[in-house]
Amino acid sequence: MNNTPSRLLCLLLALVTFAPTGLAAEADLALPATDEGLPGEGLIVRDDWFKRLWINKRTGWAKRVQQDQGAVVFLGDSITQGWGDSLGGAFGDLKVANRGISGDTTRGVLIRLKQDVLVLNPKAVVMLIGTNDLGRGVTPETAAGNFKLILSALKKHNPKMPVVLCAVMPSSASKRRPADKIKALNALYARAVWGDKQVTMVDTWTLFADAKGDAKKPEFPDLLHPNKLGYAKWAAAIRPILATLGLIETQPDDFKLEPGFESLFNGKDLTGWMIRANARPNAKPRVTKPGGFGRPAFKKDIDLAGKTQSPDGRYVAINGRLVVTTPVEGRRFQQLWTTRQFPNDFVLKLEFRATPNADSGVFIRKPQLQCRDYPLAGPYKDLKKYKPQDWNEMVVTVKGGVAHCTCNGEVLEAEFKLPETGPIGLEGDRGQFEYRRIRIKTSK
Predict the structure, then answer these.
(1) Is the pTM of this model over 0.70?
(2) Do the beta carbons of residue 231 and residue 90 sit within 8 Å?
(3) Structural domains of the chain in order of their starting residue, each with its CATH number
(4) CB 3.0 to 4.6 Å from 204: which of 61, 119, 166, 249, for a disulfide?
(5) What are the pLDDT digits (tens) for 107-151?
(6) pLDDT tens for each residue of 162-197
C-alpha cells in the first residue's frame, strides 16, 4: 500500500502545529515595543543596535537552557558580556553561564530575568548592574528600586540560592557616570541587602577606584570597560566568595607542619577556639538598623570544640580554611579566641586571604595586629610583596614582651609590645577574611 500521501499530510500538520509556537517563542524574547505593563521603572534601551543585540543574545541562550542547567549565572551588562562565555576560564571547571547584554539596565535585567536566568535553576547568581542606568540619566533611587525587584524575584525562585552582588565599578564623569552617583547607587544597594543572609556584597568599587573615585586607565582604558588586568582583578575578588559557598576550592588543604610546630586549627572544625563572653548577664541584645554596624553580645563563654561554625555562622571551618564570613550588616565587630594562653616565647605562622577592602585583625595575647587587605584598607599600604585577594603569610616572633611581625617577609611591626600572657585571637569587621595553616612553635 502506498502511504506517501499520509506521510505528506502528517508533515504538513506538523508544520502547522509547531511553526506558530516557534514564532511565538522568538517574539517573547524580543524587546517589548512599549513600556506598557512592564515591571520596574526607568529607562528601557530601545536603540536599534541594542534591540538587535538583545534578540540575538537571548535566542542563542534559549537554545542552551538544558545545557546551562545548574550553572553559576553571571548577570549584567557589557562589563559582564565582555568577559566571554566561559569568563576566560577564571574559575576553573566551574559551570558558568554568562548572561550579560551590552547596554542593559536594571529594568532590562528585570524584564528578561525569568527566561534568561531563573529558567536555568542556577546554583548561584553573580550580579553587576546599574552603570548604564546612570549613564542614561536614571536616578540611583530608580535603579535601586529595580534592583530590589530583581532580588525579590531571585529569592522567590529559590530562597536558598546564593546571590553575589558586585558593587558598581567606578567610571568617570566624562562617561556621564560621576563618582558621587555611583557611590550613591552602591550605598542604596548595600542598604537593600543589609541583614540579608542570602546576599554577599563584594566591594568592587574600592577595588578599582582612584583617589578621585574614578576608574584607572591601566585597568579601564575607556574609563568604563575593564581590560584583561581588570577582569583578572574582578575574578580574584569573587573567587574567595565562591570558595566559601562551596562552589570552587572544594579539596582539603594538604599542608604539612614544619618540625617543632603544632597546629592551632585542625582545618575541619573549631576545636581549640572559643567565643568569649562580652556582655553583662542581664544585658539586652543590641539591635542595629540598616546603615549601622553589628556588635554581637555573648553572655557566657562558648567553647566551639567539634563545631564547624560559631553560633551565628560568622566563623566557619571549610576545607582547611577558617573563614570570617562577610557580615550581613556590612560591618560587624567580633572576635574568636584560642582556648589556650601563651605565656612563653613563640613563633606564630599563618596565611590569610582578604576580599577587597576587608578588615580583620590578629590578637597576640591581647593587643591587635591589624590584618587587612592592606593596599586598600591600610595601615601598611606600601608593601611590595602583598598579593591582593590571594594568600599571604604572616609570621609573628615573640620574645619576652615584644613581637616582630612580618607579611611575606616585609616588616609590619618591628617591636609590637605585648602583655606577659594571653590567647591568640582573630577579629572580624568588614568583608570576608580567611585564615589557614595557623600554627605555633613555643619555647620550653
Answers:
(1) yes
(2) yes
(3) 29-244 (3.40.50.1110), 262-442 (2.60.120.560)
(4) 166
(5) 999 999 999 999 999 999 999 999 999 999 999 999 999 999 999
(6) 999 999 999 999 999 999 999 999 999 999 999 999
